[in-house]
Amino acid sequence: MIYLGDTSALVRLHRGQVADPWQDLAERGMIAICEPVLVETLTIGEARRYDEFETKFRSLYPWLHVPDGAWDVIRPIRQQLARRSAHQGVSVADYLVVATALHHDLTLLHEDADFETVAQVVPELRQQRISVLPESAQG
């Protein structure tokens, strides 16, 4: 299974704060990233090493494009969340990551409760916390 990693997952991978099976999947190219994840992740780095980190992340993780028409996917999601008063925690980048995961039919890998909230109104969004072992590593 290939995952689309969110910033919350990518930072934990980069810092070595995840179980070995996740590191293994990342090393095997099974965790992809997209532009909003890269941009968010790079905000934690030092300015003098910005280019170095960008090159590193682009070489370590398969690259996915944010789909054309992402805003058409996002609009009904944000409207459904607003009807439940659950729209305030989801960032613009989060919406773009959700649209990308849906477009590429990938499981969204994260450590962010906002994606679980989105999944409540978008049942086709598959999502998994990186703090839980991947299916392949569970008994």
Molecular structure report:
This protein has 139 residues and is α/β, with parallel strands linked by helices. The protein has one domain (3-134): 5'-nuclease (Rossmann fold). Helix content is 52%, strand content 12%. It contains 7 helices and 5 strands, in the order βααβααβααβαβ. The protein has helices at 7-15, 20-27, 35-42, 50-60, 70-83, 92-104, 113-121; strands at 3-5, 31-34, 63-64, 107-110, 127-129. It has a 5-stranded parallel sheet. β4, α7 and β5 form a beta-alpha-beta unit. The longest helix has 14 residues, at 70-83. It is globular and about 40 Å long. The model has no long low-confidence stretch (mean pLDDT 93).
**Count of alpha/pi helices:** 7
Order of helices and strands: EHHEHHEHHEHE
SS strand fraction = 5-15%
Rounded mean pLDDT score? 93
Helix/strand structural class: alpha/beta
Kindly identify the CATH topology: Rossmann fold
What would the principal axes of the Cα set say about the shape?
A: globular
Which range best describes the helical content: under 10%, 10-25%, 25-40%, 40-55%, 55-70% or over 70%? 40-55%
Please give the structural blueprint.
Elements: E1 3-5, H1 7-15, H2 20-27, E2 31-34, H3 35-42, H4 50-60, E3 63-64, H5 70-83, H6 92-104, E4 107-110, H7 113-121, E5 127-129
Parallel strand pairs: 1-2, 1-4, 2-3, 4-5
Helix pairs in contact: 1-3, 5-6
Pick out its properties.
139 residues, alpha/beta, Rossmann fold, 5-stranded parallel beta sheet, 7 helices, 52% helix, globular
Write a short abstract of this structure.
This protein is an alpha/beta fold. It is built from seven helices and five strands, in the order βααβααβααβαβ.
